[in-house]
Amino acid sequence: MAISDEAHLRDWKHVLTLSKLQPGENVVVLTGEKSNATNLENSMRAVLGLGAQVCRLDVPPVFPEGPHGAERAANVGLTPIAGNRNAIELLKRADLVIDLMGLLHSPEQVEILAAKTRMLMVLEPPEVLARNLPCEDDKRRVMAADRRLRQARKMTVTSPGGTNLSVGLGQFGTLPEYGFADEPGHWDHWPSGFTSTWPSEGSGEGTVVIDRGDLLFPFKMYVQQPVRMEIREGRIVSVEGGFEATFLKRYIDAYQDPRAWAISHIGYGMQPKSRWTAQAMMDKAFSLGMEARSFYGNFLFSTGPNAEAGGSNDCRCHIDIPMAGCSVWLDDELMVQDGRLIAEGQRVEGL
Ligand SMILES: [Fe+2]
Predict the structure, then answer these.
(1) How confident is the model at residue 78 (pLDDT cuts 50, 70, 90)?
(2) What is the Å distance from ligand 1's center to 322 Cα?
(3) DSSP string over 177-216
(4) What are the residues whose beta carbon lies below 5 Å from ligand 1 (ion)?
(5) pLDDT in the model for residue 283
């Protein structure tokens, strides 16, 4: 379902206002060959409508050497602006970068944020953006979770399907996402709504069972047959199950990089507007799948790099796995119970 240009423009103005865009500020809209044309047009119109200045930076694609072709999500960390100093310096000078290309997990993004530029990544089509429009309350709840996560030294996760994972925390920072970029050096993603961090390197013991109905990204697949993974010293050491287990193993093995089996970011979804079922309605080619990553109360497990957090692992293989029905503890305090967020200050009343 499409939405009208008028409604889409209104959504962009809403999110840029939440991002505290001020008259006279400089905005760069970063685009690549897959950027959504409607997002490009209405983001620029919204910036102008709010009295700020805007230009577009379009960068041609690079064809990476990875085993799964040029798909962006199969080559995490490698971006078309790598080594392009002109482009990087322009983005660092902006007050706000609207990233319609996708610099996530790249060293260039780390450098741009260090220059105190605000960054907002937007890769979803307009109707997904409209359905997941952020609000100030999203930030309040996500930052409450972020404060709790920063204090935590251990995350424990269980599920009825057999997950029982314990991970040490404290080496790295956190990644709060609430859907708008309102503070200097803050990166965010519209749509989103979750809290996450990275395990201390080498930490993570137990079992993760990806259950029927959980999702595998970047494939955008709902799992049909449970996948059981054993974790030792922060790495996946075995993967067992049916078709999806075989698929996952072959996909990751193709990178020929043992670091691909490490745990990447972990956290939980907090966005009540996002739907677990949304991915089933989406054309894979036109959506990143953020809605199914952000849905309220999911545990988001992932594999691969931690370089974005300042760690040593910059492998190209990254899998996001939103899991429903899990319970999540920070230290000994229960945050998510059977897929329902229960923590004071984080939950949405009535859900
Ligand atoms: Fe991820």
Answers:
(1) confident
(2) 10
(3) B-S---STT-EEESS--EEEE-PPTT--EEEEEE-TT-EE
(4) 302, 320
(5) 86
Confidence at residue 64, expressed as pLDDT on a 0 to 100 scale:
73
Q: Tell how far the Cα of 94 is from the centroid of ligand 1, in angstroms.
A: 26
Pairing of strands 53-58, 26-31: parallel
Instruction: Output the CA 265–ligand 1 centroid distance in Å.
Output: 7
Query: How much distance in Å is there from the Cα of 302 to the middle of ligand 1?
Result: 6
Is the pLDDT score of 21 beyond 90? yes
Distances in whole angstroms, Cα of residue 161 to Cα of each of 69, 176, 350: 34, 28, 26
Pick the CATH number of 5-130 from 3.30.70.60, 3.40.50.980, 3.40.50.620, 3.20.20.450: 3.40.50.980
Ligand 1 centroid from CA 151, angstroms: 22
Parts of the chain belonging to CATH 3.40.50.980: 5-130
